[in-house]
Structure formats: C-alpha cells, structure tokens
Amino acid sequence: MTTNKNNYLSMNNGKKIPVIGFGTWKSPKNVVGESIKQAIKAGYRHLDCAAIYKNEKEVGAALKEVFDSGLIKREELFITSKLWCTCHSKENVEKHLKITLADLGLDYLDLYLVHWPLAFEYTGECLEINPVDENGNTKLARIPMRQTWEAMEKLVDQGLVRSIGVANCNVQTIIDILSYARIRPAMNQVELNPYNTQQRLKYFCHLNGIQLTAYSPLGHGKLITDKVVCELAKKYNRSVANILCRWAIQQGFTVIPKSVNPDRIKDNFKVLDFKIDESDMSILNNLNKNLRTCDPDSIFGVPIFA
Ligand SMILES: NC(=O)C1=CN([C@@H]2O[C@H](COP(=O)(O)OP(=O)(O)OC[C@H]3O[C@@H](n4cnc5c(N)ncnc54)[C@H](OP(=O)(O)O)[C@@H]3O)[C@@H](O)[C@H]2O)C=CC1
Ligand SMILES: O=C1CO[C@H](CO)[C@@H](O)[C@@H]1O
C-alpha cells in the first residue's frame, strides 16, 4: 500500500482536513466502489460524497470492505457528504443526514455541507435535483437558511457530524449565516479552477477563517486541453491534472478531483511533492473568465450568483 503522505489544513474548529480529496459525482454505481478502494490504496484519505450523487450505498459497501479487511480504520478517513436542496426543513436535515449515514455505513461524518443555499419543495426520500411546476420552474420552498443552519448545528451537538459547512455560497450568503451562526461554517466548497478563480470570495473566506474546497478542479474535464496549462505540464514534467490540483493547493484550498480511471486516480494524488513558481501561478490566475460549469441559473433556473 502507498504510504500516506497527505498534507492537512486546519479548520476554524481545530479539526484537520487532508488537502487532497476524492470526488464521486457522476461515478456510476457499478464502478464507484472500486474507485473508492483504488483511491484509498493510492493514499487518498478524504472522500467527497453527496446524497444527490445517488451512489452513497455503493460507496458505503466499499468502505465496509476496506474497514473489514483491515486496510484502513474509519478514523483515518475524512468523509464529507451534503444535504440536498429539497431537505432544508429542520425535520428533514436530521432525517436525511441519518439516511446518508446509513447508506455510507457510518456513525458520524467528518463534514456535512449544505449543498446549495437554495431550498426546494420536499420530494420525499427519493431526492429530485429540482422539482418543477407545470411551467418548468423550480419549486422553491419558503425555508430560511437560518432554520437549516440551526438544524445543522444540532447535528454537531449530537455528535453525528464533526464539522459543518456550506457549498456554493457567495460572500453575501456567508455574511447572512455569520450573523446568526452559533457554530461558524468551517468550509465553503465551491467551483475553483484557473477559469474561475473567485478572488473576492477567497479573500473574504480567508479573512473570516472559512476554508475553501475547490470542486471541479479540472473544470469538469474542460481544462485538461487548455494550451497554457498543457505547456506548464510539459515544463514541470507533470500531468495537466497535477498542475491544476497543485494550483488549488498552493492557493490554500483543499481539492477534490474525481476519476473512475485507475491510472488517473493514482496520478491525481501526486500533487504534494512539487511546487509551481509564483510567475507560473500568475499565468494560471490570468486564465480566469468567471466560467461556471455548475451554474445554478442553467441547472435550476435560479441565478443566485447574479
Ligand atoms: N459542491 C458541489 O456543488 C459540487 C461538488 N463537486 C465535487 O467535486 C468533485 C470533482 O469535480 P467534477 O465536477 O467531478 O470534475 P473534475 O474537475 O474533477 O473533473 C472530472 C472529469 O475529469 C476527468 N479526469 C479526471 N482525472 C483526469 C486526468 N488525470 N486526466 C484527464 N481527465 C481526467 C474525469 O474522467 P474519468 O473519471 O474518466 O477519469 C471526469 O470526466 C465531484 O466529483 C464532486 O465530488 C463537483 C461539482 C459540484
Ligand atoms: O455537486 C453537484 C453535482 O451534482 C448536482 C446535481 O446535478 C449539482 O447541482 C451539484 O452542485
């Protein structure tokens, strides 16, 4: 087994999160388990899951195998999951965390995130991405973020989750949460890559002690063919994915590339043993075009970043 060379970042509650994690969105049910096992063997100690990815049962089966085989202990892993937008009411927050825990076969999560600062009508235990009315408009629910956040805080009190945070939050939404939070968000997981550098959000989160996780670090695959990044990959004798993940780590973010390909899973982890020069970091930052792969306007018809 590969030696665990994970580096960690400290969150505002003193808990540590490995800087390199493993994404699971769009990992099909029949391969996600194998990819989780390969990731753990390659050295990943941080797994990024979500109820809406609809593969948590399969992730859980793989975790059971690795725990039962003695390959790794539960406490050596940092496991994140996320509350979907249809489950924001105070009753549903605890109910759906417990469904996620049962699916993953765990008795606690290291980090539970509110997946979007958006509340949709409840669709029952079978989650829908966005329930729509007869005109195709997303059915929003009148549930203030404060209700959801207070329910998230209770999960920490009960010992069901070690840390809580948010995803896809802009500066304004975080200011709102900080105005009533008893437990401050430890993490904001957002789209971060050289096409979407989010400098203002980075500055704000840093000032307020909130760590950032870079999701879609490869631009959901789109950045892999970028000419500038390909040139830098040649210069450093690294893969394009390595350059992109290293860019995120050097900004102080945790990063969660996804792959179901065994060679890429191994390669994407090799980002802790080289450094990109400051001048090349600037070249990467200059690629910014505020491009969002996960644009809530196109996914849900709700332009929350406008
Ligand atoms: N909080 C949120 O709202 C969101 C969270 N996320 C999280 O972030 C994770 C990562 O983001 P994601 O959008 O999946 O996209 P990534 O930016 O990680 O890119 C994944 C894509 O790149 C391919 N790929 C992976 N490694 C390589 C490589 N070394 N060379 C070439 N191609 C590669 C993958 O294909 P293959 O599998 O075939 O290798 C896949 O198509 C998600 O899986 C999820 O866990 C993502 C979006 C939103
Ligand atoms: O994590 C994510 C990926 O899948 C979801 C559903 O399509 C996205 O909305 C979300 O941001």
TrEMBL record:
Active site (record annotation): Y53 (proton donor)
SUPFAM superfamilies per record: NAD(P)-linked oxidoreductase
Keyword Zinc included in the entry's annotation: no
UniProt keywords, alphabetically: NADP, Oxidoreductase
Sequence positions that bind substrate: H115
Ribonucleoprotein among keywords: no
GO molecular function, one term: oxidoreductase activity
InterPro entries reported in the protein's UniProt record: AKR, Aldo/ket_reductase_CS, NAD(P)_OxRdtase_dom_sf, NADP_OxRdtase_dom
Pfam families with a match to the protein in the record: Aldo_ket_red
Boundaries of every NADP-dependent oxidoreductase domain copy: 20-288
Positions marked as site (Lowers pKa of active site Tyr): K82
Residue ranges of coiled coil: none
Gene3D superfamilies the UniProt entry points to: NADP-dependent oxidoreductase domain
PANTHER family: ALDO/KETO REDUCTASE (PTHR11732)
Family: Belongs to the aldo/keto reductase family.
Protein name stated in the entry: NADP-dependent oxidoreductase domain-containing protein
